[in-house]
C-alpha cells in the first residue's frame, strides 16, 4: 500500500534514536595537535568576548591563543582612580599569570574629561601625573596602540623619555584632549616612537605658540621630519591644522594612505591642497570633517583615492558647519575612480524643507562624471529620520542604481566627529 520505504514524520517521531555520548579525546592524541591549529580555530572568535573568556577556561592548550585574541580587541583604561592598581599589576608582571604582557591597547587619562582643557585649569591631579608613572609602565611587550588624554600643558621631558623606553614598539598613538607646552614637545613625543604608523589628534593644541598656522619661534627648516605615518587623523583647530600640514608638505610626506582633516576656510583649504599636491598620489581614503567651506580645496592630485567621507553637514543656514552644496563642491574636484562615498548629515529638525535643502540636483550631476562610473556605494549617514531620508533620497537620486544607495543611522563616533 505504501510502496517502498516509508518517510512518515509520525513514524520517525516514534523511532528511538541511539544515544551518543561525547567523550573527550585522550591526552595522548590532543598533545599531537599543533598549537597553530588551536590558534587558527580560535581566531574566528576574535569578535566574541564572551566566547573567548569561556575558551580561556577549557584547557591549558587553549589558553595562550584565547588570551591573545581576547586582548587583541580589548582596551585597558587607566585613570587616576585605578592607576595604583594597574601599577601593582605591572610590578607583578613576572608572575605565572599576568595580563601585562598581553595588553595590546592602552588608554591613559590624567583627568576624566573629553573636552579640550585650558591652560591653568584647576583641579587636584597630583595623584596621577604622566611624568611620575609612565616610566614605571614596564613589560608591555605586546602593546600596539596608546591613547594619552587630558594633558593640560603639565608634562615635562620625562614623558618622551618614558615613551622611548617603555613604548618604543608602538605603531598607533592618539592624543585626545591634549594641550602641549610647545611644538618641540610634540616633536619629542613623535621622535620617541620610531615605529609609529597611525597618529590621531583630537582636541589637540600647542597652547598659545601656534598663531595663524605659524610657529613664531622657529622655521620649517629647523623642524624634524615626521615618522613614516600611514594613517593621520587630525580633528583639531584651524591654526594647528595649517601648521601640521605645512610641516608635512615641507618634508615631502609620501607614505600616507589614509588622511582625515577639516575644511575651515579658504586659507586652510589652500594649505591642505598644497599638501595633497605634494603627497596625495598614495592616498586611498580621505575623511573630511568640519565641513565649513569647500573653497580652495582640490582633491584632483589624489589619483588613487577610492574612499571618501564628508561631513558632518548641517542643512539649515543657522547651524554650522557645512552648507547644502558642500558635498557636491568637494566631489567636483575629484578625478580618481572612487568606489565608496559617505556623506554624514546632521538633521536638526528633520522637516521636509530641511531635507529638500540638500543639493540633490548637484549631487546627481556630479555623479555623472566618468570617475564615478565605478562607484559601488553611496552612503548617507544621518543623525535621525532615517526612514524619511531613505524615501527622499530615493526620489531625488532616482537616476542612480538604488542598490548603490544606502541610508543609515549615523554611528556614535560620527556624532562626535571621530569617524
UniProtKB/TrEMBL annotation:
Instruction: Please list which residues make up the signal peptide.
Output: none
Name the UniProt record assigns to this protein: F-box domain-containing protein
| Organism, as annotated | Dendrothele bispora (strain CBS 962.96)
Q: Which CDD domains match?
A: F-box_SF
